[in-house]
Amino acid sequence: MFWRRRKADSFERPQPPQSITLSPVARVCNDVKRPRPHGWGRVKSRLEFLPEHEPRLLGLDCYSHAIVVFYMDLAPGAPEKPEQLTLESGHRYGIFATRSQLRPNHLGVSVVSIHALEGNVVTVKGLDAIDGTPVLDIKPYLPEYDAAPDARIPFG
C-alpha cells in the first residue's frame, strides 16, 4: 500500500545548479608526463585514492574492467579552445564528437582493465591520463549497461 501512495505523490524537479564543485578522490601515477594523442593501451597506472575512500573500493577487484572519470587539469591552460577539430581522417568534427581533451569541462572518461587492488591503490591498464591527473570517480564496467554491440563510428 505504501508504494501506491508514493507513486501517486507528485514530484517537481528543482532547478539544476548553474555550477558544480567536485573534489578528486584519487590521483593518477604513471610514467606519462605530458599529454599525447596515442599509445595509451599499454600504459599501466596506479590510482592512488585518498585514505578515506579505501572502504569504497571493496569488491572492485572482482571486476575485470572499470570506468574512470578524471579531470584533465592541464587542458584549461591550452592556448586554444576549438569548437571543431580536423581529425587524422581529414574530416572535421565538433569537439563533442571527438575524444579531445580540449572540451568545455575537460572531463575524461576511460574504460580500463583492473590489474590489482592493494589498500587504497588500484592498478589499471589503458587509462589515457597523465601522471598527477585528478580522478573524480571510478565505477565497475558492466557489459549489460556499458557495451553497445551495435555501436557505429564514422569512417571506422
Q: What characteristics describe this protein?
A:
156 residues, mainly beta, 6-stranded antiparallel beta barrel, two-stranded antiparallel sheet, 8 strands, globular
Description:
The structure is a single chain. The chain is mainly β. It has a single domain, classed as Beta Barrel (Elongation Factor Tu (Ef-tu), domain 3). The chain has helices at residues 2-8, 143-146, and strands at residues 26-29, 44-49, 65-71, 84-86, 92-94, 107-118, 121-125, 134-140. The chain has a 6-stranded antiparallel β-barrel. A hairpin with a 5-residue loop joins strand 4 (84-86) and strand 5 (92-94). The longest helix has 7 residues, at 2-8. 14% of the residues are buried.
Write the layout of secondary structure elements.
Layout: H1 2-8, E1 26-29, E2 44-49, E3 65-71, E4 84-86, E5 92-94, E6 107-118, E7 121-125, E8 134-140, H2 143-146
Antiparallel strand pairs: 1-2, 1-8, 2-7, 3-6, 3-8, 4-5, 6-7
Per CATH, the superfamily is: YaeB-like
Number of helices: 2
**Secondary-structure element order, N to C:** HEEEEEEEEH
Please write the CATH class name: Mainly Beta
Strand segment tally: 8
N→C terminal distance: 53 Å
Shape: globular
Strand content: 25-35%
CATH topology: Elongation Factor Tu (Ef-tu), domain 3
Poorly predicted ranges: none
Gyration radius, to the nearest Å? Answer: 19 Å
Work out the count of structural domains.
Answer: 1
- How would a crystallographer describe the biggest sheet? 6 strands, antiparallel, barrel
Mean pLDDT, to the nearest integer, reads 90
Secondary-structure-based class equals mainly beta
